Amino acid sequence: MIHWRKILLLVSILLALGSYLYFYELRGKESRRAKEEAAKKLFSLKKEEVQEVHLQKGSRVIVCRKVSGRWQLVSPLKAPADSGAIEGLLSSLTDLTTERTVEEKPKDLNPYGLQIPQGEVRLKGSRGEQALRVGGQSPLDSFLYVQKRGSSSVLLTSSSLQDSLNKEVYDLRDKTVLAFSPQEVRKVEVIRDALNLSCRRTTGDQWELLTPIRYRADGEKIREALQKLKELKVKQFVEDRSQDLTPYGLNTPQGRLILWKEDRGKPTSQILLWSKQEGGQIYAQHQGEGTPSGAGAQVLALDEDLLKALPATADDWRDPRPFQVTSEEKVEKLELGYPDERVICAREKGARWRLQSPVQAAASAPEVEALLGKLKELKVKRFVTDSPSSLAAFGLEKPGRYCRVWQKGQATPQTLWLGQEVPNEEGVYGRMEPASTVFLLASKEVGELTKRGVDLRDRSLLSFDPSEIGKVALQYPKFALLLERKGEEWSLVEPQKKKARPTKAIDLLWEINGLKFQEILTEKGGQESHYGLDRPQLTITLWKTNGALFDTLLLGTKDPAKGLVYAKTGSKATVYAVEDVFLNKLPKTAAEVAEEKK
């Protein structure tokens, strides 16, 4: 007989034991561990609670205070603090724990270096102030003796505390030279040596040189320079209130940088003056936001990285790209001019292109897109002159070669005129219309742009999607193969009915689809017999899946010397020459396509 009351009692006991194990043993163990770890902390204040830090070592005292959410140095001088350095310092201090208690009520603190401690660390927060006196190092291990304020116990803690105590003003001071956001800058002025350069942002990342010449600026280089200037750090704070700048050469500075930005509709600027010193160090003076107020000037020592970030000549910040092609997809038309030929390609729809000159024919989209990519990447090798006395001297007065690009949204095309070769520099003179600036382009890059009509023409004889073909026939003089598709299955119909290997059928279609001509021999009909096309050595016929004829391909006589075979399609009169290796890739027996017996 089942005793339900006993069973219920046992279940209740099990549940009670389970609850005890969970809440006391598991959850309780976690809680006790957290309390134990908190008890070992030398500072109970959390990092985010700290509003003030005091570091005292000997007679040196450094005080940092959080003001309106930002850290400031308040002693021994007033200056912005390095927030990252302060946060790192606080992480180290608030993570400090007691390794063990050495002595709870020592009679003599001298053995621990705490009678006259080497220093003290104080943290102030919303829950009051906490302090830690720092003594000497334990002789047996790498720990420090410390003592909490209000406690007589001598404790051991990690020697990493020594690194925090050894911090100098320089370590905690904000070493940013120029406080700005690169995106806010609207104008840049650089004066150095013989250069007086100014440029302004037009839209987005587009910049324009204003002086010493009006020209398109290289937005990428300016963006990189601004980022380097933003990351520039003070190497040494030489003087905070210098009354005489002569010793540093800043009374007559060698260079000047001015950054302009818009602040609530009003232009504001930051000015950096500098004078070079021996040994790769530069003396500088900053005027603008973040400059300490008061009498005298602040003198900084900077690394030579400052000069590396700035242009030495106007050409350093000139846009080296002749063509402004924001995106290949926006180009609608392309024209290449030669003394004996004009090549014109126009976009039809999407990625499809068509040759309009020298012949009307489909263009090879990959070839045209590759050419557009080269045009977009083309860069000036050297700027020659902005005011040529004669364009004839560069072969640019009546040049025979040019490249023209029509881009969507532009009223007029961009035209690059190409002049004479400069063999000793491996270059070609060029000029963009209507500007007068003459520049040198690398001969190799110009050669990559030299494309004729035949180079851009679609050289496919038959272009199709293999999935749209339902039947293919190969007719040799004494043998025929006929393959037919039903769904995903292929069958051999001639010379015998048999199941075909789908991979062989698909490979065959891809070979036919990928066939390219090497030459166009004639575009007029009536010459089939001359090329052996009246009695072809092979006729390939393709039908669509709906049964309609797609096209035929005839292969005639071979030209062994050139490794070519003559060919034409049934839909066009044009006779082509294709590589004769194509014939070797095609099946010539039923066994090559039939499914093997298992």
**% residues in beta strands:** 35-45%
Discrete helix count: 11
First CA to last CA: what distance?
A: 70 Å
Largest sheet: 9 strands, antiparallel
Low-pLDDT segments: none
Overall pLDDT score: 90
The count of domains is 4
- Structural shape: flat
The spatial strand order of the largest sheet comes to 4-3-2-1-6-7-8-9-5
Query: How much helical structure, as a percent, in the residues?
Result: 10-25%
Secondary structure: number of strands? 36
Radius of gyration over all CA atoms, rounded: 41 Å
What structural class do the secondary elements suggest? Answer: alpha+beta
Description:
The chain is of the alpha+beta class and 598 residues long. It has 4 domains: 47-172, Immunoglobulin-like (Sandwich), CATH 2.60.40; 182-317; 328-456, Immunoglobulin-like (Sandwich), CATH 2.60.40; 466-592, no CATH class. It is built from 11 helices and 36 strands. A 9-stranded antiparallel β-sheet has the order 4-3-2-1-6-7-8-9-5. Strand 29 (479-486) and strand 30 (489-494) form a beta hairpin. The chain is flat. 24% of the residues are buried.
How would you describe this structure in keywords?
36 strands, 598 residues, Immunoglobulin-like, 11 helices, alpha+beta
